[in-house]
Amino acid sequence: MTSLAVSDHQAETATPVKVIQPVWVRIVHWTNAFAMILMIMSGWQIYNASPLFSFTFSRSITLGGWLGGALLWHFAAMWLLMVNGLTYLALGFATGRFRRKLLPITPGGVIADTKAALTFKLSHDDLSKYNSVQKLLYAGIITVGVVIVLSGLSMWKPVQLHWLVSLFGGYDIARYVHFTCMALIVAFLVIHVALALLVPKSLRAMIIGR
Amino acid sequence: MGRLRKLLIPGVDRKLLVRDAVKTMPELTRRRFITAGTSLGALTLLTGCDVVDSSSAEELLKKVSKFNDAVQAWMFNPDALAPTFPESMITKPFPFNAYYDLDDAPVIAAADWKLEVRGLVDNKKAWTLDELYKLPQVKQVTRHICVEGWSAIGSWTGTPLRDFLKIIGADTRAKYVWFQCADKDGYNSPLDMRTALHPQTQMTFKFADEILPRAYGFPMKIRVPTKLGFKNPKYVLSMEVTNDYKGGYWEDQGYNSFSGS
């Protein structure tokens, strides 16, 4: 009888459970999180060597110890960020995930869902479907991710990739673009983490898939 | 380590602090201390935390930096020219930048100075400034980009390095041209041969149509608009054509060696 009970139990857990976040999404998500944090913290240390604004970042939140160390980190983590990012974009398009999850984004939908979110009336019953605010934020942050890499490349290779620098309107402007993208990513990160903590099952889905 | 950290002033770059301290030491102990300082720096390089096993991470970072050298050499197009600008866009005043104050910049008497030429060259004759001034010169207005992130547009006039390498019969199959300079603590820097042969790489004798002032490297600097600023040596004393990687002042401390733009 015991064996029967066990097999019953097994049958129960074996019932296909709807996967909210496929395994490739979870892998690239956490790889990106790791690479992005390395890039941001080392980037702050690099910024401190020649600040664009009247502030610098506290050394306690930077990576690398000094400019040379930070550059080593930045130009190592960039490979992780870029390879992972390209994998994400390729799979996102190839699997139709972007089209399925992020489109369409309509102004009406965004306004309605923003109102609902601010009054805590937004439904989180089906985590596999993004609401309009999520769609906008995710599509937006992917775009910012592309722009921060392109502006970074143009600062790294302003001669070899001078056409890319021209696209940004010059080397100096590319620096401001790179910084602005960083600020947007940090702002996104704060909201993203806060919301994930408010709806813990979304965090669980990004860890175990469902 | 913990106690040492408390002694340091917040906001002060530890590397620079060590360098300042070294300045006060007698010449003989200085070199050895810099070596020791580098390994101390290795421990604190990573997060500023006292991570003892950070040396393995640093080894990995150094390997990636070597990989980045190779990637940049592969990306380097010997025909791609650095953008040039109209003279109206020249940055004024053009910044003085070094790891020492302007007061400590080398003072070189033109009459005493000779450019030494060494290594894989046919003619190792040293060159006086007058002899060098007689070589054909060209002017470029290009952007100087510092490893720190800032940039400034300047006007440099001098002899293309590749013309000079031809005159002295340099073996251009060699890997590097290695420059030694008069800066305090002995500045030096290797330049890969393909960049040395780039049409805009220049032995510079003039800034903004005037004889190169002391602040910018009198009597001669090497202007390399396809490299970051620290790969543009000033106060040059000698050049050596070599297949050996001889390291460099900043390169040895962790700046990426190729540092191409």
Provide an overview of this structure.
The complex is a heterodimer of chains A (210) and B (261). Residues 1-8 of chain A have low confidence and may be disordered. Chain A has 2 domains: 23-51 and 58-95, no CATH class; 102-200, no CATH class. Chain A is globular. Chain A contains 9 helices and no strands. In chain A, helix 6 packs across helix 7 (162-168) and helix 6 (132-156) runs antiparallel to helix 8. Chain A has helices at 2-14, 23-49, 67-94, 97-102, 107-118, 132-156, 162-168, 171-198, 200-208. Chain A is mostly helical. Chain A is 74% helix and 0% strand. With 261 residues, chain B is an alpha+beta fold. Chain B has 2 domains: 2-52, no CATH class; 76-253, Oxidoreductase, molybdopterin-binding domain (Sulfite Oxidase, Chain A, domain 2). In chain B, 28% of the residues lie in helices and 21% in strands. Chain B is built from 7 helices and 10 strands. Chain B has a 5-stranded mixed β-sheet. In chain B, a hairpin with a 2-residue loop joins strand 7 and strand 8. In chain B, helix 2 (14-23) runs antiparallel to helix 3. Chain A binds chain B through residues 46-47, 49-50, 59-60, 62-69, 71-73, 75-76, 79, 155-160, 162, 165, 171-172, 175, and chain B through 10-11, 13-15, 41, 44-48, 58, 60-62, 64-65, 68, 72, 75-77, 80-83, 143, 145-151, 225-226, 250, 253-256, 260-261.
Which key phrases capture this entry?
heterodimer, A: 210 residues, mainly alpha, 2 domains, 9 helices, 74% helix, 0% strand, B: 261 residues, alpha+beta, 5-stranded mixed sheet, 5-stranded antiparallel sheet
The CATH homologous superfamily name of the largest domain in chain B equals Oxidoreductase, molybdopterin-binding domain
CATH architecture of the largest domain in chain B: Alpha-Beta Complex
Spatial order of strands in the largest sheet of chain B: 2-1-10-5-6
Largest sheet of chain B at a glance? 5 strands, mixed
Distance between the termini of chain B: 38 Å
